[in-house]
Give the backbone structure.
Amino acid sequence: MNKAPTWFAVARRPKWIGALFIAMGVAVICALLAQWQGSRSIEAPVRAADQSVTSWHKAPVLSSVVKPGRTPRESAVGTQVQTQATLDASHVWVVANRIQRDGTAGFWVVGTYVDSDGNRIIATLGFTRQKGHALAVAKSIQSSMQPMVLLPLHGRLSPAEAPERIVTGAPLASLSAGQLANLLPADAGQRVYPLFLLVTDQAAAGLEKITVTSLTNAQINWLSAFYAVEWSAFCGISFFMWWRLVRDEQQRELAEISADDQGKLD
């Protein structure tokens, strides 16, 4: 009677030792891909001081960094830019849930500027702690006579936030350039810049200057996180497949031995 091979006996054969090294190589590649995707799953906040220039006059022109109606490059976020534009007093909003660098909570007053080409720029006008005061300043700007001349405007390009539901008469819960673009006249169309301009060196009358530590919050990129988990699973699958192939060969040899033994008995 032939001796039945054990799983370990089959696994120690040169063919399957070689297959084990292949499985290990696949697992290493999957682990590296999982690490790469994992490193991309957490999007670190962009610090307000990550990029600086000694003078606003040396900052690039807004239109050279981003284009109206087009998806901006990731590197554009945080860039200091300058342009010339006129404040459109008819489109001013108050945005809640704003935090100053010292931790003070309050509101931003945000307005829309129009450059010489008719493109729209959403930019901050200042900060205040009180909602009532923010709404009053916004109303005052809307009813004021703004000079129809191009004035210097400079700040940092900041990303839009996820839009929240708009409640009539209440401050906006988030600052989304796309959402505000929908509140502009229909002829604005694709003329709105995709990033808003965070102005920190000046403020409208009655408001404080805005101070921030970072331009964005740390966020989870769920797609990258999913891929990281997926590649990690492939690491285990590569070893499982090797174990299963060894087991299948063992079972096949056991079946052959059993058949031979049965034939001898017959």
The beta strands are 42-43, 80-99, 105-115, 120-128, 151-158, 196-198, 219-220. Residues 49-54 have pLDDT under 50 and may be disordered. Residues 22 and 62 are 53 Å apart (CA to CA). Helices lie at 7-11, 14-41, 62-65, 131-142, 177-181, 222-265.
